[in-house]
Amino acid sequence: MKNNHPLKTFFFPSLTTGFILRLVVIAALAVVLFTYVLIPFKINGQSMEPTYQNGRMNFCWRPAYLFSPPGRHDIVAVRFAGRHIMLLKRVVGLEGDTVEFRDGDLFINREKLAEPYVRYPCNWNLAPRTVKKGNIYVVGDNRDVPIHTHDFGQTPIKRVLGAPLW
Amino acid sequence: MVKKIVITVIAVIAAVAAYTFIVETEEDKVKKQFERVAELAEKEAGETNLAMANKSRQIGAMVTDPVTVTIPEYHASGSYPRQEITRRMAMGRTRFKQLSLEFFDLSVTIIDDTSADARVTAQVTGKKLNNQPFEGTHELRCRLNKVEDEWLFNQVEVVDVLEK
After folding, report:
1. The pTM is what?
2. What is the H or E stretch that residue A108 is in?
3. What is the pLDDT of residues B80-98, one digit of tens each?
4. Which residues of A touch B8 (CB under 8 A)?
């Protein structure tokens, strides 16, 4: 006797040619989507707190900077050798800018930058430096750590993989 | 029809898998060296001095004599004899209770019969002696030379991803 219960058909479909083709196409699209367009990642670390909490999931939206370079205050994913490990940082300086920290305040081109996203005070000091051509200067939002333990600095724009989806 | 498709797909997968397992390319040999380094770098709590010395010696044997190491963050660059690498490996291990090294996104370019370039992300995690967790991630650029049918590390450079 043939059982056509919808739930059973959904979980145990008949292996028809159409079904197999649909399955292959969906699997291939999912691989392409989650490998090249929307890369899932888990935040590991407190560098971007309180904006991004440790342990949360997100996606890296690759086409974010397909037609325009990252702008100031944007949050970007910076790659290492590949896509498996990325740094999530905020862009504070663009090419040609002079970046400097004075008693915890960030100065861009000798003017204090308003940073409402930085909630924890810090006492960082860093001598002025110029962002090279083709580079951006990135820093994490959580500066409540000694300056030498926080990963920040300038990096080539070509290392930017994309932006977090939310 | 469906049966034929399924059989064809299985046959193709089996053929690709068999080829991958049977044929070991030079690229695979280089990748195996990284796997071996990761294995040897692993340290469990309570590692004996003998095990530590043995692992450090084996890592030392995987580099050319001398090997060039460049770490821009510490303004350190130099050519070190194999013995020095072994000694520094052993010294470094004593600072940690537990250590684990993982490599990600390894890409290998075979330049010629005796040299290859590799780029990889290395992530070290572990516990310091005071039980504080430790984590470090770096991009590495390596040059390996083939010596007596074995790929040995000739240059290791830590790439400055973020330049302060």
Report:
1. 0.85
2. strand A105-108
3. 999 999 999 899 899 999 9
4. none
